[in-house]
Design goal:
globular; alpha+beta; 12% helix; 6 strands; 95 residues
């Protein structure tokens, strides 16, 4: 994969929701956790642990290639948007 923009490997485990995976909701919140470097790609429609899924980073980029613009999101930061196609806003998680 020559155009991969993330420092993390394409098979890096990430957290998302069943709604993102089934296409019923877009990713609207992304976190790059400082404590373990984990990525979370969330829709903001659920906080039920039963709706969580672990998938490879490349699968999420396949669902929404625009997520690649967040490849430079620093550890300990989050990005959010209102909906698909809207611009991302970024800030430190504790800021």
């Amino acid at each position: 994969m020559t155009d991969w923009s993330f420092e993390d490997a394409p098979n890096t485990a990430t957290i998302t929701t069943v709604h993102v995976l089934d296409g019923s909701a877009p990713v609207c919140l992304v976190t790059h956790d400082a404590d373990d470097g984990a990525w979370q790609f969330l829709c903001g429609t659920t906080d039920d642990p039963d709706d969580a899924r672990i998938v490879a980073l490349r699968r999420l980029i396949g669902i929404d290639p625009g997520l690649a613009e967040l490849a430079d999101l620093p550890l300990g930061w989050r990005a959010w948007r209102r909906g698909a196609g809207d611009p991302w806003r970024r800030e430190p998680i504790d800021g």
